[in-house]
Amino acid sequence: MIREFSAGNYRFIPSVFQYSAGTAANDGYEIERVRFDRLVPLAEGFALAAKFIQDAGRPLTAFCACELRSPAAFSEEGFRAFNLHYVKTLSEWGIFDGTTNPVARSNVCPEIDPPSEPSFYAFSFTRPTEAKAPSFVISGGAEAREGSGTYVERTVRYRDLSPEGMREKVRFTTTSQMENRMTAFGFGWKDTTGVQAYSVHDFHHALADELARRGALRSGLTWHYARPPVVDLEYEMDCRRVMREVII
């Protein structure tokens, strides 16, 4: 299940063409997360990321994860069109080979004061380290089962915003998305340094049983008042273990 991206000094969980399900630094390397102080349009964000990575003495192939913000949730067709545009830069950087994409990603839609165009919130890259602590980034995952079929067919409790419907969405995302992906790398909640949730709906009633008691809140929870990137998805999460984080 795990594949190696030697040009970037990290391994990844294969998923769909637009992103991987997660990345983890190889031995002798660590992941550094860089967050922008303001949202930066996609092209400008790629340019700034390239400069930061190269100034750190790293190749562009070290780019291993990104966090994006979009103006509004996409239709399935619109999401695919956006992704085809997004991966062009990764192809130019020697990361995306036309089929397999090793880069982890989250892409959500702020409900209030959204950007006018798809923009960067943060990115991550690998760099050498003498530290022994592992580092990883798990991609954003929502309440849609993986596999073939439309989002309507794969979404857990589709359009069900009842308390129990939201609880089941949170449970699925916590276990089938986050936990399964971390387990593939040999990690768990005890290893995380950051957990983020994205929803415009109240899920407080699920916090104790579905998150806290599972150990997911060991470093707290950052809740972004934002929607997942596809219409009718209502809850998304991502998580990471990153020892070095900066804001630019």
Amount of beta strand: 25-35%
| CATH fold naming | 60s Ribosomal Protein L30, Chain: A
Please outline the major beta sheet.
7 strands, mixed
Order of helices and strands: EEEEHEHEEEHHEHEEEE
Number of separate structural domains: 1
Strand order of the largest sheet: 1-2-3-8-12-9-10
| CATH top-level class | Alpha Beta
**CATH architect. name:** 2-Layer Sandwich
* Straight-line N-to-C gap: 35 Å
Instruction: Identify low-pLDDT runs.
Output: none
The CATH superfamily bears the name RutC-like
Number of H- or I-type helical stretches: 5
User: Could you tell me the radius of gyration in angstroms?
Assistant: 17 Å
User: On the 0-100 scale, what is the average pLDDT?
Assistant: 96
By secondary-structure content and strand pairing, the structural class works out as alpha+beta
Task: Label the overall shape.
Answer: globular
Proportion in helices: 25-40%
Total beta-strand segments: 13
Written description of the protein model:
This protein has helices at residues 42-55, 76-92, 151-154, 163-185, 207-211, and strands spanning 3-5, 10-13, 22-25, 29-41, 63-69, 104-110, 119-128, 136-142, 194-198, 222-224, 226-227, 236-241, 244-247. The protein has 248 residues and is α+β, with helices and mostly antiparallel strands. The protein has one domain (3-247): 60s Ribosomal Protein L30, Chain: A. Strands 1-2-3-8-12-9-10 form a 7-stranded mixed beta sheet, covered by helices on one side. Helix 5 links the parallel strand 9 (194-198) and strand 10 (222-224). The longest helix has 23 residues, at 163-185.
